[in-house]
Amino acid sequence: MKIRVYYEDTDTGGVVYHANYLNFCERARSETFFSKGMTPVLENGHFVARKVTADFYKSAKLGDMLEIYTKLVTMKAASFTLSQEIYKENEKIFELEILLVYIDFDGKVQKLDNESKELILSLF
Predict the structure, then answer these.
(1) 86: Cβ–Cβ under 8 A, 6 or more apart, which residues?
(2) Do 24 and 68 form a contact (C-beta atoms < 8 A)?
(3) What is the Rg, in whole angstroms, of the alpha carbon atoms belonging to the chain?
(4) For residue 55, which of 71, 87, 95, 113 is within the disulfide window of CB 3.0 to 4.6 Å?
(5) CB–CB of 63/5 below 8 Å?
(6) DSSP helix/strand/coil, 63
(7) pTM for the model
(8) What is the pLDDT of residue 89?
(9) If DSSP codes are grouped into helix, strand and coil, which group holds residue 41?
């Protein structure tokens, strides 16, 4: 997914605020679902972040075009881990590993059914 850095994404010096890299990755994950005519909210629940590990290599600035790449790392009964990388002009500037857990609408952890697992495998 490509994202342009807007003024709202930056601090007063025009540098992307650190938390916005997480937002960019979230948009890319959501866009993966939207591009298939779906949403990240499934029939019986949705995904929440359980653990995030982030590495910041270089800063993006106002007006930059960024590319976000997402790939599946592991899948378990009720969770999966994704790796996301953000590039600016073919140079990696940020890397994220996120553990996402599937919960029902009451907030209880649920196992992913086979259909949901197949969906995740096909998307990422």
Answers:
(1) 21, 24, 25, 60, 66, 67, 68, 92, 93, 94, 95, 96
(2) yes
(3) 15
(4) 95
(5) yes
(6) coil
(7) 0.92
(8) 96
(9) coil
Reduced DSSP (H G I as helix, E B as strand, rest coil) percent helix, strand, coil of the chain, to 5: 25, 45, 30
Residue 104 annotated to the active site: no
DSSP string for residues in 76-89: -SSEEEEEEEEEET
What span, in angstroms and rounded, lies between the C-alpha atoms of 107 and 53?
23
What SS3 class is residue 69?
strand
- What is the helix (H) or strand (E) element at residue 60, kind and residue range? none
Among 11, 55, 104, 113, the one annotated catalytic: 11
Residue 58, helix vs strand vs coil: coil
In percent, the amount of the chain with pLDDT more than 70 equals: 100
What is the distance of C-alpha 10 from the center of its chain? 19
* Size (the chain), residues: 124
